[in-house]
Fold this protein.
Amino acid sequence: AQQQQKPLSENLQSWFEKAKSYIPSAATAPVASTAAKAAANNVVTLTSSNWQSVLSPSPSSKPSQGPEEWMVLFSGGNKSCYGRCAGVDKAWNESAALLAADPTAPNLGYVHCDQSPILCTTWAASVPTIWHIQLPVAGPDQSTPATTIRKLGLNTTTVTAADIVKIHAQKTYEKRPVYEGALHPFDGWAAKAGLNVPLGYVLYAAASIPSWAFMIVISMGSRYVMSKRTGGGQPGAQRSAPLGGAPPANEPAAR
């Protein structure tokens, strides 16, 4: 009876761990490969070109069904995650296999910030994080409530598949505050003005400029301003002689 009272996520994780215990350690690579294949079947890869069409409520959804739930992992490689996200990706793949057996599981999305840097910049997403998103369904009057987003940071060394499953099964996302920043991809001022994507390109370009280039521009700018203030660099600029002193060398003495 106690076994039946346990949450489905705990039972699935227990079965998963038992199954792995019967497999020799030399066979862990095939297990990881199987989890990756399960994730590929259950997880949608989001890019700059498809996220707006993918992250929209299904046409068949009804307001009475409540918002459509998504969990999106922002991960990366050597460039955006400094090579520390391999363990996170492994736990994510395993959690996708577990959630596939849950009929109430959310939709799953994945963003690789090395491959889609503009999208990560547009969303101002750090890695590795999971964004829990509740997409509202338009009402009879076609009005749409705000999209609820909560961000959950992941520990690159300790995160497990069970931790990720609990975000949905135990609603641990509710412990995080609702995101209401200016770069909110659905309801922020930039998104409402249609400027979130162009702004993402601008921010990405600015972030791609090396710091030494900024220093050169600042140095040249400061030198230009100083030369304007002191009259240097202006051809024929008049220089008066000090009181009681000799005139400048390039000016003839008065007779």
Summary: The chain has a mean pLDDT of 79.
